[in-house]
């Protein structure tokens, strides 16, 4: 009986750890890797060759040694670069390859042929695979592409659409709500489902803050974006649509930064639907401005990066009373407003009285979407084996939400303000213990507060008039 009890206890522990590993496997990738094979000029596999990859901007070094078959892997490397890879072995000439760039979630392959120290060679051949080894169908968008490619809303979705399997944020025909979106390995989905089907302001669908037409992070804080559809990497999971994975920028040994501003208004977008540029269209504008700054606190050891951004958008609502294609004429809207402005009610004591209800604007009307974003990150190179990153992202956004169409008219009193406040903190510890063992620990905490305020105050609750 004791034996059975112990066996059952062991089985329960095994099941527990399997479940734990399954849950951990749903975390997303935040790193890159470097791998390859080293042989001699006589086509012999070389064991114990020292391979060191140096991140040139930060000076951080990570190394390993080749296995008996001459192969090596250096995991937990920061995406991007450039890296300098140096290969050394007793009795053989040292070889170095510069300007190696790594992509998020992929392994870049480099193969070396070492010549004997005493042997004089006219040419040294180093072969490298610039196309990183992928773990399934997917698309990577690096920093250069983020800076050079056109974008309308400066959002993550403006770049994941580069994947041919993506149509309006739907991967392989699945709803965008089945995607899994992570920032620095921490889940960043619209868990409550407030995000509208098209994301309100273009590009925000499926992300926290979509209800307030805001993006969850400034584009200037992003280092690289990865979109995967059918990966076979066990570290990617928790989705049936697409896996959208982004990592943020970090500081380097050189101070770098920028001040930026983007925007458009009625002069760029054109006239209003009735051709009158001063009546409605002149109220439209969409601006984003901010800054970023990164640099060293301690050279080769401790780095910082900060980013701040504000966004301001105002847009007119067409189909006002009396406007082209509106379902309501100005006279009808005035009659409704006048009728409800003073009507009879029965008081608590049974006597008759009057009350008034302001139905709100029925002509020209503007809605807005404003947001403030602050991002900060600290990177600490603890030693040659371990590095630690801590970052925090704060967003405060609000937007008004009156909508009209050619078949639906709403008075201004039906407008409301949608508020969104986000705080997200992520701690990541990357360790390369040996040539065979490495660890990547990610701890994240995200708090999202979505709430609404009625225009005119919570006490003025009246039936909808439309």
Care to give the gist of this entry?
With 466 residues, this protein is mainly beta. It contains five helices and 24 strands. It starts with a helix and ends in a 12-residue tail after the last strand.
Description:
The protein is mainly beta and 466 residues long. The chain has two domains: 105 residues, Sandwich (Immunoglobulin-like), CATH 2.60.40.10; 318 residues, no CATH class. It is 11% helix and 45% strand. The protein has a seven-stranded antiparallel sheet. The protein has a five-stranded mixed sheet with strand order 9-14-15-12-13. The protein has a four-stranded mixed sheet with strand order 4-1-7-8, with no helix packed on it. A hairpin with a 3-residue loop joins strand 17 and strand 18. The longest helix has 23 residues. The N terminus is likely disordered.
């Amino acid at each position: 009986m004791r034996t059975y009890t112990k066996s059952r206890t062991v089985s329960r522990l095994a099941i527990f750890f399997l479940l734990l590993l399954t849950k951990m496997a749903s975390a997303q990738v935040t790193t890159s890797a470097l791998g390859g094979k080293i042989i001699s000029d006589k086509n012999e596999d070389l064991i114990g060759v020292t391979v060191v990859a140096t991140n040139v901007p930060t000076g951080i070094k990570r190394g390993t040694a080749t296995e008996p078959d001459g192969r090596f892997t250096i995991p937990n490397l920061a995406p991007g670069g450039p890296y300098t890879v140096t290969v050394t072995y007793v009795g053989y000439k040292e070889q170095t390859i510069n300007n190696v760039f790594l992509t998020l979630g992929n392994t870049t392959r480099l193969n070396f042929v070492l010549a004997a120290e005493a042997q004089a060679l006219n040419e040294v051949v180093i072969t490298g695979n610039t196309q990183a080894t992928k773990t399934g169908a997917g698309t990577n968008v690096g920093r250069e592409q983020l800076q050079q490619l056109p974008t309308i809303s400066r959002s993550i979705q403006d770049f994941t659409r580069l994947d041919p399997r993506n149509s309006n944020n739907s991967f392989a025909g699945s709803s965008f709500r089945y995607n899994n979106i992570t920032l620095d390995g921490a889940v960043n989905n619209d868990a409550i489902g407030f995000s509208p089907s098209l994301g309100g302001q273009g590009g925000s669908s499926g992300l926290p803050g979509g209800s307030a037409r805001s993006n969850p992070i400034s584009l200037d804080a992003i280092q690289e974006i990865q979109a995967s559809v059918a990966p076979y990497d066990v570290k990617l999971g928790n989705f049936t649509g697409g896996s959208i994975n982004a990592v943020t920028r970090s500081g380097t040994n050189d101070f770098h930064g920028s001040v930026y501003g983007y925007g458009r208004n009625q002069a760029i977008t054109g006239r209003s639907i009735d051709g009158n540029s001063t009546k409605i269209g002149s109220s439209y504008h969409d601006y984003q401005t901010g800054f970023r700054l990164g640099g060293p606190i301690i050279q080769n050891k401790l780095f910082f990066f900060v980013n701040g951004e504000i966004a301001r958008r105002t847009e007119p609502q067409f189909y006002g009373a009396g406007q082209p294609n509106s379902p309501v004429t100005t006279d009808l809207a005035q009659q409704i407003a006048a009728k409800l402005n003073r009507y009879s009610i029965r008081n608590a004591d049974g006597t008759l009285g009057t009350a008034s209800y302001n139905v709100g604007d029925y002509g020209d009307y503007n809605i807005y979407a404003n947001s403030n974003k602050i991002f900060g990150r600290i990177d600490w190179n603890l030693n040659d084996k371990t590095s630690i990153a801590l970052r925090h992202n704060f967003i405060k956004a609000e937007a008004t939400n009156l909508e009209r169409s050619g078949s639906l008219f709403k008075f201004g009193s039906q407008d409301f303000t949608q508020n969104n406040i986000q705080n997200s903190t992520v701690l990541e510890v990357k360790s390369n213990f040996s040539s065979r063992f490495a660890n990547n620990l990610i701890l994240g905490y995200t708090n999202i507060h979505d709430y609404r305020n009625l225009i005119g105050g919570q006490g003025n609750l009246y039936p909808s008039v439309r």
